[in-house]
Amino acid sequence: MTMTKKVAVITGSHKGLGYAIARQLAQKEDIQVIVTSRNPQDGLNAQQRLANEGIQVDVHALDVTSVASVQELATWLQQTYGRVDILVNNAGVNPTMQPEEASLLTVDIETMLATFSTNVLAVARITKALIPLMSANGYGRIVNVSTEMASLSSMGSDYYPLAPSYRLSKVGLNGLTALFAKELQGSNILINAYSPGWMKTDMGGSDAPFTADEGAETAVYLATLPDGGAQGKFFGEMRKFGGAIALPW
């Protein structure tokens, strides 16, 4: 089937930031949201929680690290909706709390590789798979969830933990964003990265100053950019900066 609503895929959206992004986008009348999760039951549970609020979403299993899973999703989207308009690459891992992440001298290289595989290569995989569905309709908005910790301009002086696996993976994600933007220049497919900030999620903990709903605001803004909007930029969270502010890489 085909439809006139924009179709939005949010990776890792059964809880936390991804769930908040999915919820806010699904409240817009012209967007059909697809909640994805590695565990199918987690996705169904999220769908039911949203349904209890009167918010209707579709759901599909997705393991972003699996070639077969990503291809299965792309095929299903083509057959079910005939399009994809919005992709929010939210799924990721953060091993920062592991003791060896306190120093480059103790960091485990296998952990670095696994983090890079999920936070960079998996994003490349699903973005490559879904761009053709965007190109077919001449429209796309891609949002990559990054972090201020990946800003090279401030990395040497910021107050964040060293966290080499997480930081370097997000540096890679920012580079991926810039390269995709270069390749997509002149099209109506806009790709940007943003930092959601420190949020009260499983990853951020209860001491964080922002909620997941607040962290989702910039993602929703970038996912609904008008034609001719920002391309290949790195944004801070809107609540912290008082608006959509592009940060230095």
From TrEMBL:
It comes from the Bacteria. SUPFAM superfamilies: NAD(P)-binding Rossmann-fold domains. The keyword Oxidoreductase applies. Keywords: NADP, Oxidoreductase. GO terms for molecular function: oxidoreductase activity, acting on the CH-OH group of donors, NAD or NADP as acceptor. Belongs to the short-chain dehydrogenases/reductases (SDR) family. PANTHER family: CARBONYL REDUCTASE 1-RELATED, CHAIN DEHYDROGENASE FAMILY PROTEIN, PUTATIVE (AFU_ORTHOLOGUE AFUA_3G15350)-RELATED. This is Short-chain dehydrogenase. It comes from Pseudanabaena frigida.
